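Notebook entry, structure prediction.
Reason for the run: the old model in the group folder had no record of what sequence produced it. Starting over properly, with the input documented here first.
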Amino acid sequence: MTSREVPPVRAVLPVVGAALAIELILGVLHPAGNSLSLQGWTGGLVIAIEVLAFGLPPVVAVRIWRADWRETLRWRLPVRRYALPVCAAAPALAVLLVYVQALWMLLVSPLAPTGGSQALSDALVADQPWQVLTLILIVGVVPAICEEVFFRGFLMQVLGRHWRPWPVILATAALFAGLHLDLIGMPTYLILGVWFGVLALVSGSLVWPILAHLLHNSLDVIGRNLLSTDVFEVYAGWLPGISLALFGWALWDVLYKQPDTH
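New structure, fully documented this time:
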């Protein structure tokens, strides 16, 4: 392995800075106030932010440093055995994060406005059934690919040249949470960032974190549009416990059941 396969650590700061700058510049174009729609031009703007802020900077950095993009972005065939825990963890984690988010909002709502998060939550509700597919594309498919290339691809590989695995996972998860620029959603993003980082580490591929990211975001959209809040109320007594057990099994299966085979 040569030193040119992955860009040096000093490439991290300009890439993160470029992502943040693009987010802030394009974010100014969002409609003001608490009303937000992801249909039409605003949905296109969200896709543009994802592609330009998270997809473009790492690709440009790989090009500038003449690095091996396969090694940097970890685009390789996945180990198939991770399919079951990844798919099982998605609905379990989606349920658990509903409760995490609710608890966090109780803690920080006196300190931070919740209007922005509420506007985004409302925007994920489709007016027509077919619009659910559009929302899955906007907040599921595109972010899953672009953000995983950025965080679990570029950042994890570059930082991993000098740091041990768990500090790298935690650092990229913290950046993942911070660059979403959403205080209300920060614990959710942090937990997801750690899970996606674990998948990238043990599988040696971006395929599984991309799939996990896609499943989570898509289930979020589907849940908001197709599931009534009565579902959580009726099964509130045992749903968290089952979800915690299912996610615990998935995490154990990924980390301990079999040795790394990639």
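Summary: The chain has one domain: 9-257.
The old model has been moved to the deprecated folder.
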